[in-house]
Fold this sequence. Notes:
ATP-binding
Amino acid sequence: xxxxGDIRIPSRLPLLLTHEGVLLPGSTMRVSxxxxxxxxxxxxxxxxxxxxxxxxxxxxxxxxxxxxxxEELPALHSIGTAGLAVQVVGxxxxxxxxxxxxxxxxxxxxxxxxxxxxxxxxxxxxxxxxEQYAGLDSxxxxxSSELGELSQRFYEVALQLVGMLDISVPVVAKLxxxxxxxxxxALPDVLTSMIHVSNKExxxxxxxxxxxxxxxxVLPLLTRQMEGLKLLQRTRKPRLDDDRRIIPIxxxxxxxxxxxxxxxxxxxxxxxxxxxxxxxxxxxxxxxAALRVxxxxxxxxxxxxxxxxxxxxxxxxxxxxxxxxxxxxxxxxLDIRAARVLLDSDHYAMEKLKRRxxxxxAVRQLRNSLKGPILCFxxxxxxxxxxxxxxxARTLGREFHRIALGGVCDQSDIRxxxxxxxxxxxxxxxxxxxxxxxxxxxxxxxxxDKLTKSLQGDPAAALLEVLDPEQNHSFTDHYLxxxxxxSQVLFIATANTTATIPPALLDRMEVLQVPGYTQEEKVEIAxxxxxxxxxxxxxxxxxxxxxxxxxxxxxxxxYTREAGVRTLERKIGAIxxxxxxxxxxxxxxxxxxSSSSSSENSCDVHTLFLxxxxxxxxxxxxxxxxxxxxxxxxxxxxxPQVSExxxxxxxxxxxxxxxxxxxxxxxxxxRMEGDGQLTLTGQLGDIMKESAxxxxxxxxxxxKAYQLTNMAGGPDPLExxxxxxxxxxxxxxxxxxxxxxxxxxxxxxxxxxxxxxxxVAMTGEITLRGLVLPVGGIKDKVxxxxxxxxxxxxxxxxxxxxxxxxxxxVRADLQFVxxxxxxxxxxxxxxxxxxGPAPSLAPPPVLSKL
Length: 850
């Protein structure tokens, strides 16, 4: 369809009114259809038509805005273009409309409008006749010489315009081929649709029916386009290749006078910048493999124009390679005595962690090439896992960098992105090395147990190479794509539990358990670190407020139940805020010691506050020291947490381990008439449900030996009886085997009607034969029992070795009963033993307040 003479359009055409542009013969244009008349034309002719004739429509320019369409048809332009609809696409967003792809065929004149609704149809006359151009390429003597000269001149100007463009661009190459293949009469319309012209100018070209007139109108447009390209080329900074730069040289080796232009200055500046980058690359002491890659990228950078997007990517890559600490490291402080003093001053307790760091220093003294260990601190929140990592870095004299891994679900955060992606960047490991500037820092991988999987990969799997001492000497980041040695980095990971860490990753780390603190350790930590820090944060001084150790112990035992010290620090902060208010108000003491002490329990907080300084014999100054009594705590904090008492049969105290530390757990049981069913509540997991069924089966088997009866006095405890077993805190999911002995004791108390000792807690797994098997988390569980004020702990005999980790003063306060079978558990859990006669139901010992 390149020659319009080969086309005969219908004499009647439906008209498509456009306002977005002007369609010229030989060009293609997308038209958005959203007006009522045009949409009806598309539905009636284009979507339902099956023949080629039905897809030929008349495209007529329309100056009226379609948003102001009225019932009356606007005045039609007399000249239009017959077009072939080659594609129709419909959409309902943001409103129903169609998008047409139309190829222009030839011009036509509107002779008569036949109808306006539902879409306009007109009688048209085809204007582009083949006879009009017949002599351009054939040399016909009847063709005027003026038209031939115009067409040749037009062709030459078109060649010049295409020659100014980059022939490597596919569109430009295609345009160059079109100039030789298209007939000369089609060139004005085709080139007009490709260069930058306004719709008004296109409309003038459409109205130019005469070919000579069309050549004359398009020639100035081509000339204007060429002038614009020349101006654009002059404003851009030229970048010539070195072999095309010719600079006159004087004898003395300098430049000839007046020969150094601004362009030369820019080129020299770029050359100096690239040379400086090359010197930095060669002086970075990077390995041979990395150096070869950098020099190759640098060679590409020199041949690359700055306007290319890849130029900035390549330069950023080279600058990162230069900034990485390939051979820069810090010297370790190997003084073990100084390290011990520094660790003790920063952290109280944590003897196992300190001992491991000192062992590393000792081995480093004997062997300098020791690889960095990969440690994993596992413990409840608030015990100082992150802060001890920072202290280790300070002890060794190394740089410290923390990488938070909680919620990370993309492996690219560890390995980086490949440079083929837009916005690619290195992973957190390489970014951390760039930030610290040395290749042997201390990296803290915080919350490694909270990594998650996603469609972007598994970051835990990406850490396998990082945390493997046999592999991390050649860690390859996707962005760098060259190996980097991580063997000198000291990796420390932190986690609350190892249950969610993949086994392969856990196997690569040396796990160090960080259990909770005892009450005595918390008191020391509070007075060494927490209280001074809170006083500083609240603008107070030790001369203005003092918190004695008795008060601190009261806060710990009555107002906090945690393995760490975060809640304790918040309680101390609440006291400091209350004291700060009084100090800022400038109250003066008005009461005497006798008047305040006589009614200590009834006086208000203001009186207690003001009298505290008088009891110490201090002057009642507005800035006087405030001595915090325990009785003041009820005003500065929430009411203390008080535990329950075991006053009914069917209640026992168990010990549980959680990621937040050890906890005591009350197990309750009741029975009622029924058909022998067991009901379990409290969001129990499958393992705890199995432990409950094991306990019932063992008790039914040994009911006669222990004189256990049902509600009717029969020998089978479940005959005609339903049992309900409940674990309080029903909103918390519970699971694990260590509640087995507690369930047996609770049910034995229920069936026998005897009370369990209220100062006893227990833990251990059971079997169907009545054996007690070892469990984990003994230290956390024992500390929880000690915090609760219990006096006796029943645990499996095979867990006796775990008692060595418990502080001596805690072991001195508690009595431990190591058992190997359930008979020993029951004898220890009941006063006088479970086999002996039942004692009278005197009031049981009261469990101390928490």
